[in-house]
Amino acid sequence: MRSRKVQVMVISFLIMWTFITYYILLRNSNGQLDAMHQSQQVKQILPKALTERSKSLRLSQTLIEFLRLKYTDPQVTTTPKITIVAAEISNELLEQESKATHAASVATSAQIPTRTYLANGEPVIPILVFACNRISVVKCLENLVQYRPSIEQFPIIVSQDCGDELTKQAIQSFGNQLTLIEQPDQSDITVLPKEKKFKGYYKIARHYGWALNTTFHVGFDYVVIVEDDLNVAPDFFEYFLGTHKLLKQDKSLWCVSAWNDNGKANVIDTAQPELLYRTDFFPGLGWMLTKELWSELSVKWPKSFWDDWIRHPEQRKDRVCIRPEISRTRTFGKIGVSNGLFFDKYLKHIKLSEDFVQFSKINMSYLLKDNYDNTFLKQVYVLPLVTFDELRLNLIAMEGPVRMQYNNRDQYKRITRMLGLMDDFKSGVPRTAYHGIVSFYYNKRRVHLAPSANWKGYDLSWS
Q: What CA–CA distance (Å, rounded) separates 275 from 418?
């Protein structure tokens, strides 16, 4: 009993320390400033305040977790083992959302712009930014506001989870440039002890489900999802203006992504910023989906790892995404729930397009399934076969595109590592692949890394 009292006293002290530190910082910084300068001052002191706050929060969270594990009923229901199947949502989560967040959803929905189409018939396409506890979201938002061509057509909606006050203030400093909504369910998520390190992915999935439900509830036909650690290209908005109609025209498409997983400067053609592809791989990282797709996915939304779940054949159903030759997004977020996975080796080298392409003026019909398959697939398999050494040493006599072939998983991984491409698979699909073909640019030449012509489809065992 005494142990519990001591622990409670320690936690109370730490919480008090947090508030005192935060108050002193604000008071010292804002003492004589008038209201017009306060938002700028908040941005300047946020990093320092966040550092002090984190020190105490880490200690208090450690003690709280200890108490929870020691005194919580051991019979409490835990989350199933993490697998694609086990991640399927149960009706329980939907019921919890319905009961616990209905009132909050109604309140936040009222803040979101309700106009879904402009007077000229063009759709309003909200940019839904997901934020948590990183004040660096300011970099993302400044970028979006800078390049946004129309506040009416592209309202920015920032959905914040975690309840972090400093991040909230950073978002609110943009005033009427955006709308802030807050995920109301801040309850803990119980997982098995060995899955504790994955808890962040559970919270992200819960946040995505709530925010997309809230936004689409207004009646928008399209939503573009942006994470808080992304910068966007000058033509980011124009890219989606030019491609959104494809999602309605071609039912084999289910997303448009601004991201190229193999978008490093040495394996893309920087002279073709207008070039787009179809891909079986779901890229994410700045992507657009339709109301119809969300209606389909929302009723079975997973409890965790939503991006791996969405790539599974049961969800993808052979549908594909559009992706660019040169990325229209670039991540600056090395630190996050993924602990910088792939960042140093790949992500920080992704080139962000600097050109402005008027995608809305380009005929996009070549990306429709029948047109694309009748040209792209046929062209690839009549190209001359070359080896990696011939390509690397520039020993190919003819000019123009070439084809390299892989026959098994190990061969594919060996070739991509030599080329500097990403070598992993998700649900058997290589990154950027279309019908197994991965297209890139090497030694000033278009190269298609392709399976044999009698390819039978993706193999889940390759993941």
A: 25
